[in-house]
Design brief:
four-stranded antiparallel sheet; disordered C terminus; mainly beta
Length: 232
Amino acid sequence: MNVVLKTSDGRPVANASIDFTDGYATVTVETTGGGILAPGSHGMHIHSVGKCDGDFTSAGGHLQVAGHTGHPASGDLTPLNIRGDGTGKVVATTDAFTEAGLKGPEGSALIIHQGPDNFANIPPRYTHNGTPGPDAETLATGDAGGRVACAVLAPAGSTSSAPPSTSTSTATVTETTGVPVAPPVTSSSATSTSPTSTTPSTTTTTTSTTVPTTTTTIPTSPVGPVNPMPGG
């Protein structure tokens, strides 16, 4: 997968690629120039909807693959650190998602955020409404701030829900069985007397068997008197 992350007004921010090998995804993101991202750490995530409309909230929350609900989320990536000149590059590997997972019915999108991601690492000495640790918003967003750049990895609705086409073919098989040579043609006659007739009627039923033609050559002996066997 190769994409270009852009701002909401269409300015390119970074090139990104995701390669899948041996069960791992290698994510590479490199800025295309300075001036858009401020120096420092920027949260970077794969989001759960393949849309980059408006302020990019259309991309939904962080990707969670089927069966995973914990934190960090499946789509949480290593942050992108921007140098003083406004450029940066990150290469990271993960086994938290697969290519098929990114291409689900809702698709997916890659987003760079305005600020750093704390990965919900809030010490228990901090509380929210009397409850220690991170609140729901921190768990969901990592407090990374606004969404600066976005790229669709797989568009929403790109997976067809139509059932696969099924075709049925019928084959005709003709079986040929060798028939052994049958005995000579036989005929059978049955005589029946009709009980409703004053004159007996005879019904003849003939059964015929078709015998394959077999040609046999038999030596012919001269016709003559038969000599008795000696001693006979």
